[in-house]
Here is the input.
Amino acid sequence: MLLKKLCDANAPSGYEGEVREIIKKEIKECVDEIKVDRMGNIIGHKRGNGKKVVVDAFMDEPGFIITGYNEDGTLKFDLLGSLDTETIPCKTVYIGKDKLNGVIGIKPIHLQGKAEREKIYDTNQLCIDIGANSKEEAKKIIPLGEYAVFTSRLESFGEGLLKGKALSSRLGCSILLGLLKEEYNCDFYGVFSVQGELNGRGSYVSAYNINPELVITVKGSELNKQNKREVELSKGPIISMMSQEEILSANIIMDMKAVAIKNNIPHGIGKYSTESGVTGSYSMSAEGTEIGEIIIPCKYSNTSIGVCSLEDYNNTFNLLNKFLKSL
Amino acid sequence: MDSKELLKELCLAHAPSGREYMLYPIIKEAFKGFGDIYIDKMNNIVIHKKGEGQGSIMISAHADEIFLIVTEICHNGILRFKGVGVDPKALISQEIVIHGKEKLTGIIQGEFTDTENNGSKAIQGGNLFIDTGYSREFLEDKIKLGDFVTLKGEFTELLNNNVSCKTTDDRAGIVALYECAKALKDHEHDLDVYFVCSCQEELGHRGAKMISHSMMPDVGIAIDTTFDSGAMGDKNRENILGNGPIICVGPNLHPKLNQRLMNVGRAYKIPYGVEVEPGNTGTDTWDIQITGSGIPALLISIPTKYLHTRVEVINLEDIKNTGRLVATFIKSIKSHELEEILCF
Here is the structure.
């Protein structure tokens, strides 16, 4: 399953290589031209006569970057992208291209004072343990700046749900791959962007290079962090009204809604996007483009193990596909 | 069987306190040919290897693991739970297995409060919940209140023979029993040897109490895990992974027997360390010692990082050396010396 291959690949912000290779191979047959720009964004172009349209999905997942060594041979790290830091302890990670195993431990509960028991650890109190015996040994094996990601695998969960890592980015990538295999009238650019977790930095460059008339970004996102127990999935994708920086084009929202209703695709409309991201890059960097955003609802997506609905994923594809066909 | 493979199988299996029979098939298979194997009413698993002379020795490692228990089935696939021996911080965003009518997978998540002064977040166990992804109706059919929940493990090999998994506490101890049994297999020894996979240690070493009482061995040794002395361990100890098992010294342990154990280690060049426990060792040994008319007891521990989490780290050589040390110790004791060694 392609979605599984994408989610299980290791590619945090700035180190998107592993996912880039999968996607390049996958779109080779179905686009007129593949370009990888100076940032590392992949642009798959399907020529058409209509509007210049971009669908953008980012490739990177949140992860870690090694910043130093402790005397006992453990590694200091910082975050790449946005992670809910309370979820970091007691996880296994893969470090670098060679996927060296590491674990992030904490002090045993028996040794914690009462105050320490209830406090969430700050990232700088944690470390990655690779089993090295000394600082010197660790230095020889892991260079500074090496990346690490969680080891969670994409698997089915509950009733019609999926659990895994990297859902924010790879659900969108997988949908965009599907769209590139369809035929449309518009002049269609599929952009798989880098550094989406870092406020959509990759998309600044693709926006400038392509200068599209219409942009739709697609990603997974956690709907409600305050009241996690109440979040219900399988209610359809969300058509964003506004993202962090900008109010999205009212025309697009109306058109998408019309397409959804016409095709009986369940959907919601709202302001859910909590992180700034790719949409902002297009509004800043392209000349007066219209922008829309579709969100695949997720739970716990900024953690080691997120949850989404297979039905929502399929409906997001259907909605985007029908919308692009309608242009 | 390779001890790493056995450790993996044992660690990835689930056996919360009171449900140790869930481990019995694996243990029965692994210890086949080492002696008579049986499980008692309370789930203590015993492997009995006969000796050539008089006297008996019991070696115990606990089979049970830390666990959670379901306390409420809510709507939207959510379960409430209580934990035993578990740090809430170690549970967030973890996958778990719910042992209902069938095994279900869940994810633990929580709602976190901001602490007043420094902006860092706080957690109380009660704010955590299990998300199953199922409807309430489905859950009510498959799960009942009081069902056990255990962590879903991942066996990870690290550098220098270190491995990481859930429940190396105390499945590593059972592997040490296995190594010991292997070392004794084709050798004659005077003492009757009872290898015990004890139950309910995490609830206060209750299984050790039961089995000691029914067996009344002349000597009892518990094999358990202990803290390491690293940055996230107990800095007041000298316990380093890879430097051998740790022999405990203190009032819970028999001084002359301990001397004998260390002499054996030195004579046979089996590396070991020493840790001091001035009171309760918090292990099976604590109960073995004062059972019936008293049982001279020892404690050998395997240093472990990040105890009671899903990523406990332990060293395979330490496990093997623990088994070697105990086997050599058993072989060294002749029936006629027993009285003298144990006499104050």
